[in-house]
Amino acid sequence: MSGPLRIGMFGCGTVGGGVFEILTSRLQYLRSVGVDATVAAVCVRNTANPALKALLAGHATTVTSKYDDILEDPSINCVIELMGGVTDAKDVVFKAIAKNKHVITANKALIANFMPDLTALLAAHPSVRFGYEASVCGGIPIIHTLQSSYTGDGIQEIAGIMNGTTNYMLSKMEKEGASYDAVLKEAQDLGFAEANPSADVDGYDVQAKIAILAKLGFGCHVAPASIPTTGITRIKTIDFEYAKLMGATIKLLGIAKQSSADAISVFVSPVVVPTTNVIGTVHGASNIVNIVSANCINGAYVGQGAGRFPTANSVVNDVVRLAQSVVPVPAFGSTRNVAIQNDYEGRFYVRVRLADGLGIVRLIGTHAEEAGISIDSILQLPITDRNNVDTVVTTDLAKVSQVQRMCDALATLPFVQEIPLFLPIL
Amino acid sequence: MSGPLRIGMFGCGTVGGGVFEILTSRLQYLRSVGVDATVAAVCVRNTANPALKALLAGHATTVTSKYDDILEDPSINCVIELMGGVTDAKDVVFKAIAKNKHVITANKALIANFMPDLTALLAAHPSVRFGYEASVCGGIPIIHTLQSSYTGDGIQEIAGIMNGTTNYMLSKMEKEGASYDAVLKEAQDLGFAEANPSADVDGYDVQAKIAILAKLGFGCHVAPASIPTTGITRIKTIDFEYAKLMGATIKLLGIAKQSSADAISVFVSPVVVPTTNVIGTVHGASNIVNIVSANCINGAYVGQGAGRFPTANSVVNDVVRLAQSVVPVPAFGSTRNVAIQNDYEGRFYVRVRLADGLGIVRLIGTHAEEAGISIDSILQLPITDRNNVDTVVTTDLAKVSQVQRMCDALATLPFVQEIPLFLPIL
Fold it and tell me: Transmembrane segments in this chain: where (chains A, B) (predicted)?
């Protein structure tokens, strides 16, 4: 055991409040299993917030708005960072480590973007333990599982639904045939989606998460901005109809997979997922991470991807591991020499919107052939408007650059109405 | 780190051979992450086994058939027990702990039946670490997850498909409409089911597993033999037809759930599972454990429940945690004062085989009422043979003793052809 933890918490809103509630309401039980953890101080912007006052009433926790009140306090040996962002939060986390305080954070953007710096800083401060279970998929213990259950295994693919907002939206579109715009508005009205929904719908949230999992699974730092990322904004209800024809559905996935013995591909995209695959069965705001590996063959971890208590529970798990001295080190696993292959390979679904006419199949075939792509099937649902026909082509194994080339070429044809949409098929 | 592990392995067949292969083939990588583990000796019945000789060729591992050659060897600091059974295996495990050797075992029967003795013995030998990840659900890291990810949470229900053989059989019956006898024979021909399939089909395998998970989840020892256990032998294809009518399927589950603030119910039974529940989507030989809890709401862990490398991987995970000193203690979690309520409550599916006639619904209703059961629905698929009609009654919340009483009473009626089958509904 590590001895008592005196925690300084930065940010005490939805998740932080949940952490405080769990640590205080389960105090007695936690002590009985060797976890002596007290939130000694919280640092928040508005120290007069009534909800905060209510939360802390009757507890000896001090409240401050000055970072250094915690960072310079030698009696505080653990920092929980729940501010978010990569500016002040970065300063807080880096300074806490430099001061030899343990750090627990839910900040995916900070970890994904500054992992090499964090690794170096942690190596220089070997007594510091760094927990970040809450940074990926809220209540699913995927960080700890990757840290501790695949050491003797060889991971081949990590694929997951890691954004509840978009999964809620896609599930609605599939189930109710609602349009993208309608489900986005509904998600915004319900508070699931932000007024500016870009982080979710453009895939940036997933980008940071898959970067973190790729490091744990394959040992290589992947800069989030370098990950080919496609969001869900171009998905239409017709795509679900075609997917259904294929015994599949559409899910926004982050994928990191071995592409050769010493290279991996990492990307974020809506993916056509067969409904027989466990990923295809996870609907609504739930998340799933599915891991394909040499020994375990297939393991899936399903749970709530966000929310006050699922996320707070993951933060508390880090507190417990810290108190019980069972935090795996190094925090980000081993580092291996692995190349990143952005031009990933797969089978693809390509939807072409066109005005119906003669010779179209021949022209699609010509452009596929010119891009070196072998066509697997051409699907056509009943046509209602001959000027706006959505036709779907599925390909055999091809590189994404080839598919991009074919789509760019098809877009120049007079009867093609818009740049074709392409999605990998799982 | 714990320093080098010198392992003595008892049993070196399917799983043991897999463990040896993983530890030797990944030796270099494991050392790079602080895992220095060598299988110094194996103890097997037939030391001349050619497959064993081939496996060990080129390695310094010694082979013996005498338990004490390992147990009395002070240079061996870790025992892996893969013999199975509760006779010799028990002697080996208990003596190893007494000799202050760490123990890793896949032996569910040993753990489930002797957990109180093991707990006491481990308390008397505090330096000993005890790993048993492989004892439940092969490749799913469920033991470690329960040990380390729910400390700040409050578990309300653990329910799982924990036997691949019966899940394979039930999946086949559902998908192909095959009879129980036909799928059992096929499973036996394929080597999935034993010549004497009782441990699987009568639910005893699941009984031991849910006893272990109940301890980790709820803190109370549950004697396996005390767990109400129903196997799959009475399930017929007609049950899948009725389940389908209910938007459900049938799965053999081990369930441990909170029945009141200080009591739990533990049972093993085929269960009617809605196909919208993630448990209902896991087919074939796969396993799943689904955990309902206060903070995380719902978490599901899916994977291979058996097989050489999935199971061996779990054994290796215990080796890794031991070498990295991140084994949670106490091994079986905290012990709490929780009552066991065998007379569990639920909604039930009751199938009554009868000869069609006048007044049947009234009589069923009378007997339900006499047992204090409120009927939710009566289902009737089209009748083909009026002398053998399968009718299904679903109940509102009732205790299993009430349902049993109703079934016993119905069985005495002249037109009822056999004791009605009842299954809980998830």
Answer: none
Q: What is the pTM of this model?
A: 0.95
Instruction: Give me the tens of pLDDT residue by residue for chain A, a chain 426 residues long.
Output: 468 999 999 999 999 999 999 999 999 999 998 899 999 999 999 999 999 999 999 999 999 999 999 999 999 999 999 999 999 999 999 999 999 999 999 999 999 999 999 999 999 999 999 999 999 999 999 999 999 999 999 999 999 999 999 999 999 999 999 999 999 999 999 888 889 999 999 999 999 999 999 999 999 999 999 999 999 999 999 999 999 999 999 999 999 999 999 999 999 999 999 998 999 999 998 999 999 999 999 999 999 988 999 999 999 999 999 998 877 778 999 899 899 999 999 999 999 999 988 888 999 999 999 999 999 999 999 999 999 999 999 999 999 999 999 999 999 999 999 999 999 999
Instruction: Provide CATH 3.40.50.720 ranges for chain A.
Output: 5-135
The CATH class for the domain spanning A142-304+336-340 reads alpha beta
Looking at domain B345-425, its CATH superfamily turns out to be ACT domain (3.30.70.260)
- Are the C-beta atoms of A63 and A44 separated by less than 8 Å? yes
Dihedral over Cα of A125, A126, A129, A132: its sign: positive
Q: Residue A320's closest chain B neighbor by CA?
A: B151
CATH topology of domain A5-135: Rossmann fold (3.40.50)
Question: Pick the catalytic residue: A172, A209, A257, A399?
Answer: A209
Q: Crossing angle for the helix pair B108-124 and B204-218, nearest 10 degrees?
A: 30
Contact B148 A282 (CB under 8 A): no
Q: Is the peptide bond before A330 cis (omega within 30 degrees of 0)?
A: yes
Q: Which of B30, B148, B325 sits opposite A321 (nearest CB)?
A: B148
Question: Residue A322's closest CA among A112, A86, A47, A133?
Answer: A133
Rounded to two decimals, the ipTM of the complex is 0.94
Q: How far does the CA of residue B117 sit from the closest CA of chain A (Å)?
A: 20
Q: Which residues of chain A are in CATH 3.30.70.260 domains?
A: 345-425
DSSP-assigned letters across all residues of A132-143: -GGGSSTT--HH
Which of A139, A140, A297 is nearest residue B310 as measured by Cβ atoms?
Answer: A297
Mutate to test the interface with A, among B295, B304, B325 (most CBs of A within 10 A): B295
Q: Assess whether A209 carries a catalytic annotation.
A: yes
